Amino acid sequence: MSAGRGELIVVEVPLGNGRNYPVLIGDGARHELASVLPPSARRVAVVTQRCIGVTVDPGRQSRVFEIGSGEGAKNLHTVEQLCSQFARWGLNRSDAVVAVGGGMVTDVGGLAAAVYHRGLPVVHVSTTLLGQIDAAIGGKTGVNLPEGKNLVGAFHQPCAVLCDTSTLATVPPRELRSGLGELAKYHFIGPEVAASGGGETLDALPLQERVAACVRIKAAIVASDERESERRAILNYGHTLAHALEIEGEFDLLHGEAVAIGLVYAAELARLLGRIDDERVAEHRRVVSAYDLPQVLPAGTRPEELVALFERDKKSTDGVTFVLDGPRGVEPVRGVERAAMDEAFRRISS
Ligand code: GLY
User: Does the model's pTM come out above 0.70?
Assistant: First the structure.
């Protein structure tokens, strides 16, 4: 059943130069696809994965292009294959791309849309919690290299994002729980949430409003720093360790599980650097544990490998950089010393 647009929550993402785009949140949001596509778009390339199983109706001629699953398929080869398939179909600048799936699909489909013919309009239909509260919003697209996660990409803002909360029922339980890792992050970085009493506020919201609250936080941060010259980096809270764990463990951990461990690590690091107190570390552990997410390093993790990966992180332009909590809130902190990193590893080892 299609929800009327009136039952959906609409959050605008304001960008510079008067540009903005809507994020529609709620059960049935995907049925608004035809209305949010640029009216001039003649044909639509729908990028998805077989396992997603969510169908969309763009309301004009369309063709489905499936990509592989998992981080192993999130690479330049997949983008090249998509672009070749677009070319063989004859897709051009009067057409559009729609990415239907989780963060992997919107990152890869978004990058193909960004580079094919130097940029086609894209709409994201986000079907996972992780995608709805983070990956699909804000225009980041990208793929992995063997050397690290998301090392190649482009900023390419969508024309609209549809967060259809009814599709969350199709997500396997472990993946749904993984999305809670990104949700945990918003307990610590959201200005609106912080202003209205912290984590309890998010905890108390029903799903549709909780997703909308995260989208509002993300929209405000993206609006203040669309291309991540500084402030937007706070959206990577918990991600420096998370990305390293995902690469080092060859993706045994799901992204949100790795983010959960990364949040606790970042809290321990901030404590060691005198930026926060024990109570605030305990608050991080409480939020992560309330979402039933891991907070210790997986057995066999090699800290020296993780540190080598920290050095290759995109944020590390001036010594190893972490996003850390502190008296002014969460912010990037440059030049973190190895001794502090090692002691924080010890504190999150089982
Ligand atoms: N996922 C982090 C960002 O969009 O900036």
Answer: yes
